[in-house]
Amino acid sequence: MHRVILKFRGQPSWRSSRSFLPSQKPFRPQEKSWLWYPGTLLALTGVGYYAYENHQPSRHAVLATLRCSRLARAAISGAIDYKLTLARTYTSEEERLEAVSQCHVRSATKVLNALLANGGIYIKLGQHIASLIVLPKEWTSTMAPLQDRCDATPYEGIAALFLSDMGQTIGELFDDFDPIPIGVASLAQVHVGHHKASGRKVAVKVQHPHLVEFFNIDINMVQSTLGWIKYWFPEFEFTWLGEEMRENLPREMDFVHEARNTARVVADFENIKTSLYIPEVISANKRVLIMEYIQGGRVDDLAYLSQHNIDRNKVALELTRIFNRMVFMNGWFHAVSAGNLLIRPASKSSNSPYNFEIALLDHGLYFDLERELRVNYSRLWLSLIARSSPTVDADRRKYAALVGDITSDLYPVFEAAITGRLSPDGIIEADDGPKSDTQRATGMLDMASQIEEEMELVRNTVAPGDILVSVLDVLRRLPRRVLMVMKLNDLARHLDHSLATTHSSVRIFLITSKYCMKAVWQDEKNRFREGGLGLGSFLGSAWVFATEYSKITFIELMMDWQASLVKSSAWLRGFYSRGLAGAHDAAAGLY
Asked: Which family does the entry's similarity section mention (predicted)?
């Protein structure tokens, strides 16, 4: 049996009884925390920064979380604000309306700030909101700055995109290229250059390079956020807006698709006597579009029109004709905004019937309007033109249901959005609703001089606090194409007002009515040829078309004569106060 003898060197201590290992001090992080914690934080920060810069999924995850949280915070905060505002009790209707208006402004401002911070397609989302004419004006006016609040891509980014997409440098393609864009939008920016191959001065549309990288993650976040808002606040439904963006944005981001649209609209107006001018496409790449450069002014620039002796009344009417031909004759129309339009003096070789041409820019997004929907919308519009009667009122509601699945309770909001005016008698005032002594129009032709008191009829038709919900319900039901037609109608009214025209405010309605008549008559002829309409009915339709069209034409002539008298009166007043220069400016609407 062996015996183990343990020998200890030095003085014995309490540590020697606990371990056979040499004496050591236990690791205690807290004794060096001043070094360990900052070091760990620095290491994690470095790893995170490296992943963000070099690992695309990590960068996308970080940015997606940040952008989604901004939008969700703004949207949910606004929804809560609405619920609290609408739930309060107010001492008067004026106090309630003021509170709701302020709530609109607060909520819209929160969303605006979130969209500006996120940038990219979120700016496009805000532009869509600004174009929804049935939304409260506080929302559309708050979002309006997004039309011009877009950051430009630095020149270095544009140069890199040319090299990657075109396989050539900017210097190889252009003799001269202005590095400062003349226009910046949410999806692209436009530069001016001199194209070597064609030898022409050109406008070069270049897509923002970052859009492709973040498109899928951004659109997913938009739809996810809108979906959560719908889940928690079912009455605030905007999921359709996300679906529309997913469908349309890829088209707008494909400049080859835009070039095809340009060729089609040129063909649509090829044999038409019109002032519309479409710039020529010289070269098209998915993210770079080289076009003919157009020099002109804004269509509502009264000083520019005066300088070139362009009649502002004719400009407003011609714009309305262009829009309506696209919608009701071609069934294929542009999602126009005022920024897409330029006006210039017509050349001797121009096809314009006037002394000006209207250039339509940016052909990325067009909408189809199938035959049945186009005809039903036309019939709806013609019923709005007609004087109110039980039969006409029934037709209005019938075609509203066919066009947009609009129920009777939502009809007042829908009609006000289409016409830009208050609904005619017999529509706003429900049989069991409050009556008014206000003398009201019975059709759109009588709407030239309505008064503010009629607003009470709208407020009394829809339950207090429910107007916004009704608007959102209308937006949810309407086909997107109908919504875009309404946007075009609103643009025509806006430009007619901005141009300070001297004709009646319903003058442009007459143009729309004539194109609606043409659309219905064309459909009747097609049905007759296809055997779906008898000879008697066909002849009856021909008589109605001829008589009603002539009647509208006569009213147009009378309104244009009255407009010329107003302009002549302004000329005389200007001449009396400031001589010939004053007469010219007064007739041009400059003062």
From this structure: Belongs to the protein kinase superfamily. ADCK protein kinase family.
Q: Is residue 311 helix, strand or coil?
A: coil
Return d(Cα 453, Cα 459) in angstroms, integer: 11
Higher pLDDT, 382 or 225: 382
Q: How far is residue 277's CA from residue 356's CA, in Å, rounded to a whole number?
A: 10
| Dist. CA 248–CA 487, nearest whole Å | 16
- The first and second tokens of residue 106, run together, are 């607060």
Extract the tokens encoding 4.
């183990």
Distance, in Å, from the CA atom of 469 to the CA atom of 464, rounded to the nearest integer, reads: 11
Which region, left, alpha or beta, applies to residue 533 given φ > 0 means left and ψ of -120 to 50 means alpha?
A: beta
**DSSP assignment letter at 330:** I
Integer angstrom CA distances of residue 327 from 43, 131, 482, 515 = 61, 18, 10, 9
By the 10 Å C-beta count (0-12 exposed, 13-18 middle, 19+ buried), 86 is classed as middle
Mean pLDDT of 583-589: 89
If you compute the radius of gyration of the chain from its CA atoms, what whole number of angstroms results?
32
CA–CA distance, 550 with 370 (Å, rounded to integer):
27
Angle at which helices 56-87 and 210-232 cross, to 10°: 40
Measuring CA to CA, how many Å separate 433 from each of 167, 414, 426, 427, 459? Answer: 68, 18, 11, 11, 11
Phi, psi of 191 (to 5 degrees): -115, 160
C-beta of residue 401 within 8 angstroms of C-beta of residue 385: no
Q: Treating both helix axes as pointing N-terminal to C-terminal, what angle do 33-54 and 56-87 enclose, rounded to 10 degrees?
A: 90
| Axis-axis angle for helices 535-587, 507-530 (nearest 10) | 160
Task: Answer yes or no: are the C-beta atoms of 502 and 560 closer than 8 Å.
Answer: no
State pLDDT tens for residues 38-75.
Answer: 666 666 565 555 444 554 555 556 666 777 788 888 88
Beta carbons of 309 and 584 less than 8 angstroms apart: no
DSSP assignment of 405-459: ---GGGHHHHHHHHHSSPPPTTTSS-TTS--------SSGGGGGG--GGGHHHHH
183 in Cβ contact with 189 (< 8 Å): yes
pLDDT attached to residue 244: 84
Closest Cα to residue 310, out of 323, 296, 324, 289? 296
For residue 454, what are its two tokens? 């009629």
Which amino acid is present at 339? G
- Rounded-to-integer distance, Cα 550 and Cα 456, Å: 36
231: tokens are 């889940």
Distance in angstroms (rounded) separating the CA atoms of residues 373 and 479: 10
- What angle, rounded to 10 degrees, do the helices at 411-419 and 467-477 form? 70
257 Cβ partners below 8 Å, 6+ apart?
A: 251, 364
Could you tell me the CA-to-CA distances from 118 to 78, 125, 205, 209 in Å, in that order? Answer: 18, 11, 23, 16
List pLDDT tens digits, range 369-400.
999 999 999 999 999 988 888 999 999 999 99
Coil vs helix vs strand at 575 = helix
Three-class secondary structure assignment of 378-392: HHHHHHHHCCCCHHH
Q: Quote the CA–CA distance of 563 and 390 in Å, as a whole number.
A: 34
According to DSSP, the residues that pair with 256 across neighbouring strands are: none
User: Exposure string (b/e) for 243-262, b if CB count within 10 Å is 16 or more?
Assistant: eebeebbeebbbbebbbebb
